[in-house]
Amino acid sequence: MTRCVLLTGTRAPATLDLARRLHREGVRVIGADSMRFPLGRFSNAFDAHYRVLPPRQNREEFLREIAAIAKHERVDVIWPTCEEVFHLAQGREVLNEISRVLCPSMPTLEMLHHKLRFAEWTHQLGDEVKAPASWPASAVPVDERLVWKPCYSRFASRTSFERPPGDLAGWMVQRRVRGREFCTWALCVDGEVRTLAQYVCPVRSGRGAGCAFEPVWSDAAQRFTAIVARALNYSGSLAFDFMESDEDRQTYVLECNPRLTSGVHVLSPEISIRALLDGEVIAHPDQRAAQLLLPVLASSPRYAGKSRDVMASSDDPRPAWGQAPAVAEFVSIAIRHHISLLESTTFDIEYNGPEHP
User: Fold this and answer.
1) Is the pLDDT of residue 355 over 80?
2) CA atoms within 13 A on the CB side of 318
3) Rounded distance, CA 196 to CA 39, Å?
4) pTM score, whole prediction
5) SS3 content of the chain, % helix, strand, coil (to 5)
6) Which of 47, 67, 93, 180 is surrounded by the fewest CB atoms within 10 Å?
């Protein structure tokens, strides 16, 4: 039985939601993040919370710190939730001798995270769901409606429907598909999908990050997720963005996010994460709408209050107030490094390939 879980990346609302669920189920939850004011620092769902060095800038020391925490707290499972997963995976063999690390190998993560390599790989699976035709930016086809993306990117922050200016090394292009976009998140263990959430984002902060989440269901997405998990003997969080085409009614997978996503928010609170970790399978879970109230108020006030606010909790109220210092820290990072506010949220944990880790 899983008794103690170490969650890294506690800055994320999804990680806070996950921690609260595990805490209610009787799991001892430990948190770690390189931010000074991550949301998890304010939550009573964590029995202990540690500040660690930023893995992007100090990977080896970060891994030593995680190992020390896991030993000291007698952790059963280390569960990386954000992009620090790419750094933790590079110490996976050593960490697995202390606690089980809930993530796949680095070569698997690298393939899934690289948008062009993943798109090409989907055409080898033999399933009806695959990525739209994709090419390196150096081989742009003519007479195609295209989407331009950096091969390593997140939150659709640099996605463009027009050719970006400047050097396009490290970019890819993909045939543009119009239709209904939806997202999925799965918890997988040893190639088995323990549960799967599916949702649309009717409200977004900017182009990419969703802040309201409504349940949907696609049998094609469920089948595709199972095929990928089985093919890779996958353990950890496995998330995809899909598009149901208006033109041919086909379901296309646009990209993979091998980390925790907002899908956890739509899982019914009656579903036990602890039980899933310990072997239970809920193939088609009950799902409920949810939202991040403050971003919804800023982006589309008419949606505010239509579903559960992820941040609000009567028995854990401090993270709602902790959003202020967390955002202030992101603003400080953005100003200091001349980057956008969205980019500041992953500045110290993101992974942009072996040449620019």
Assistant:
1) no
2) 11
3) 25
4) 0.95
5) 35, 25, 40
6) 93
